[in-house]
Amino acid sequence: MLVAARYPIVELYACANEDLWRFSRAPGDVARGPAVRGAVAGALASGTALDAAGLSYPGWQRLMIEPARMEDGKAIGRVLYVNAHGHVVTNLRGGHLEDMRLEPGHGVEAAFGDQATGMDLVEKPGDVPPGDRYAYVNHLNLVAFGANGYSFAALYDVSGGEAVTLGKIAEDE
Fold it and tell me: Which of 61, 91, 113, 117 is most buried when burial is the number of CB atoms within 10 A of its CB?
């Protein structure tokens, strides 16, 4: 839906044709999303017909997600999804952090419904000690929240669609 919000969608297909996937089928090896997407994109760019990628979804519907916004110095948005590691991914963007003059090392407060928690903004999730909560900007330029060794979503009972408010913690707090 993030792509559909920026570009017109003419047709939608599931990349279900495993012959295009280019990953090891050795026991214990797992297909990773980026590897599958990259292999399928490469095949399509090399002339493979779109309908060879997999199943067509002619009746798909666009999910309408209100864009994130700035209000009273805080970023307000929604949880888009919770990933397999329990990270909470929002529709807040890196630009919202820039608007608040936040960079890695600053403290932030995130509120989900009536629950609020403080944490550090980090450059990447591996930068925090076990057990710590953190906020970061992911590879899609979306603000996400995690907890090293735990599911952030489970700790705070957060799920997709919930409102999120992100603010700056004053340096003296």
Answer: 91
